[in-house]
Amino acid sequence: MVHSQQTAPHRSGEAAGPGLDLGIAGCTGAVVVGRGGFGVVYRAWQPDFHRWVAVKVLAADWHGPSRARFERELKTLGRLSDHPNIVTLHQAGRTAAGNPYLLMAYEENGSLADRLAAGRPAAEPGTEVAEPPWVAAVAGGIAVAGALETAHRAGVLHRDVKPGNILISRYGEPKLADFGLARPFTETPDAGRITASLPHAAPEVLRGEPASVASDVYALASTVLHWIRGAPAFAADTEAELLRRIAVDPVPDLRPEGVPDRVCAALERATAKDPARRHPTVAAFAEELRAAQRAAGQPVTPFVLGEVAKVVPADEPARPRFSLTARRAALGADLTATVHRTRRSRIPAWARTVGVLVAVGSMLATAGSAAPPAADRLAVPATLAVGEQEVHASSDEHAVAVRNGGGREVRLSAVTPVGPHGGDLRVTGDGCTAHALAPGQRCEVRVVFTPQGPGPRTPLLAVTVAGRTAPLTVRVQGAGRLRPASRDAAPPGRCYDDAVQIVPSAYGYAGGLRTLSVKQYWSPTCRAAMGYVWVWKQYRDNAMLGGGTWLVDLAIRPAAGDGGARQRAQGQPHELWTAPFTVGGGCTVATATVTHRRTGESMTATTEPWCG
Known about the structure:
Immunoglobulin-like, alpha+beta, 3 domains, disordered N terminus, six-stranded antiparallel beta sheet, ATP-binding, 12 helices, non-specific serine/threonine protein kinase, Ser/Thr_kinase_AS, transferase, Transferase(Phosphotransferase), domain 1
């Protein structure tokens, strides 16, 4: 979780002071403690329980990859978080502003990365640490190994083990966190896509090969080595040099620093460049560390293994699914806020290219020797009814089932929206193209309908089968309706009475969360355009703490040139309309800027041009 990257200081047991309102019942005094590409993590106070909690709030939109990421982390944590060395999940849901969130135990001692950066050993607070660093590191590594092995036996690869994702509890216990990058064993990743955090990623992962148990073993051993040394095994001034060292150089020899030979041997085997030379399981790695503890006369750390059912049953699609009730009652969304690479550790373009070429070459070699057989009685629905939806607004997800009713295995190579209205359809979940479909098996594709115009809409979903020239098609039947200005409480007036929204809404963001939405409306009677802005409730609630006010500047104007209509308001306004702007020709845009009067922070959003 992101809160492992930066911890806001507080005293144990203190009550919450002034803070943000996240729009989550029972949570007050929220403070940002971490950020990432997918969300924000807050520390919040729950007065009913007299405890702090960590709340991870998704910043991205609900549909798409962000949703799958969030659902995956929720399902994984739900199955695994009773393990004593995995962070505890309390609940999940959506904020008042509609953002999905995970509410977890707040581990007040921050992350292992925090403690190592501060030069503090990861021991129980208040204890005197006189033992060598390897003792605590090996004990902590064995504890985390129990959590990681439990995840593996549940069918899940973590894929991002590192000091930043190991939290330290009040009692000094390590907790494995951030399952946002986790994947089921059965899910095949996109070829050439590198998902890892330098410098703890295994060499084969950085070459573009898929993650595996062996790569998780490497990452855990690399983390233990970092724990002992206080620094990663490899460092360099350039990314290219860092990648070269990870791929070629052996890990540092810790024997001169007083680390027992058996501990060093276990770490060296677990970080071997060749995955086949590493321990076959995390449990085997942990057992070798435990043997090293015995040989050194140290207490042997218990290896705690949880018992969980497989997260992804063999007869279900690889990608996790949620019922409609669970989606509406428990979820909002693609959430984890993991920062994928540390500072100055982005994989350069040449490295990404090498990884893609390696993966593509491997795929081509496989295709040449084992071409899939032709499809045999593959069934898809002829039509999918999605109903009527406001233009430019997204529907709920709809499922399309694909079933192999034949006697031979088939492989789907693509699922693509096509046709004159193909732009109205978006694939948000593809459980079909990642793996072959055995006889009798079914898979599922999830789509969202977003009509781009009014009236009947008939996009097609093309299901391409390897070895077959013509794709199977599903005819999607829906309709779009224009959004009237009355839906946004338009002021009275002839031009507003028949105004309808004409382009998609534009959004502004602050702190990774939506702050404002801007719409452009058009009146056929007046042949005039007008702008509308809404300041989202979550921002209003947060900005108002301490007496905050803001300035809203809204304009409807030509896309090129001067003129238009402008409306400004200050104080604590939450919505605003411009006067109608008569359009003589050309294109128009609506633009809004919200500026916080106390902090000076400003957010701007502009709609797409409309050329009526």
